[in-house]
Amino acid sequence: MAPELAPLADRTFVVTGATSGVGEATARSLGAAGATVVLAGRNVDKGRAIAEELGSGASMHRLDLADLASIRAFTEELGDRRIDVLVNNAGVMALPYTRTVDGFEMQFGTNHLGHFALTGLLLDRLTTRVVTVTSAAHLVGRIDLDDPNFEHRRYRRAGGYAQSKLANLLFSLELERRLAAARSPLRAVAAHPGYAATGVGGHTGTWFDRLFTFGKTILQRTPAQGAESVVFAATEPDLPGGFVGPNLLLYGSPHPARAARRARDRRAARRLWELSEKLTGVTYPLPPGG
């Protein structure tokens, strides 16, 4: 059983992908502790129903991370309200090759570029922490910064997903370095949930199917258990930044984790950052992280 959270009545959290799976479980956990929760996602009707269950401190706003115009509209709708923690949770997994509204490969565009743009547009309203949800799939991820949208190389669904999750971690670690260089009180933390039985996988036509079958039959972890690392990253007061995940990789209690070597490549992280600014048109008023 997850430890009970300290009261969060004076804090505001934005959670993307908050209408299902780990995102919904994260929003419910934060709401149960009294936080003001902004649920963000595409399924507005379901989000409103969840917000009603959480009470007057919760609200639902439409956000499509595969559409830069939707991201800008969402940030404008929030106005200048203070946001203590942004949880970049939403994601798509192992899709057939499709493109976002803006022409990016769907997994790279949604999982990474969408959250990169969202974080940058909200940066001046964030006070405490940016949590970006990655995956153990980053361990096998490889990123091609000359062709991130698979325009000139063969597309593989699982490989595209792993690339996007590696990009999430590269981004979060670089954001932490840049915030530190700017002496900002804001911290960046990446979190991976381990295995959780959600609707995002198990019907992909890839080796992920075997992983999800194993997870369901052996680990039997719920979305709420998967959300433990995300909630820990968002609320643990003494967490300085970095990366957290289950202590047994796919399951267990959350603790500081070690990122794969490719995720700790600072040159690749800087290149990804520069590419992301170019592709999204969103720039951050932060110095390079060194």
Keywords for this entry:
290 residues, alpha/beta, globular
Explain this structure to me?
The structure is a single chain. By secondary structure, this protein is an alpha/beta fold. The N and C termini lie far apart (40 Å). The model has no long low-confidence stretch (mean pLDDT 91). It is built from eight helices and eight strands; from the N terminus they run βαβαβαβαβαβααββα. Helix 5 (157-181) links the parallel strand 5 (126-133) and strand 6 (187-191). It has an eight-stranded mixed sheet with strand order 3-2-1-4-5-6-7-8, with helices on both faces. The longest helix has 25 residues, at 157-181.
CATH topology-level name? Rossmann fold
Looking at the chains present, what oligomeric state does this protein adopt?
A: single chain
Alpha plus pi helix count? 8
Percentage of residues in DSSP E strands: 5-15%
Number of domains: 1
- Name of the CATH superfamily: NAD(P)-binding Rossmann-like Domain
Which residues form runs of ≥5 with pLDDT under 50? Answer: none
How do the strands line up in the largest sheet? 3-2-1-4-5-6-7-8
Distance between the termini: 40 Å
Fraction of residues in helices?
25-40%
Shape, please? globular
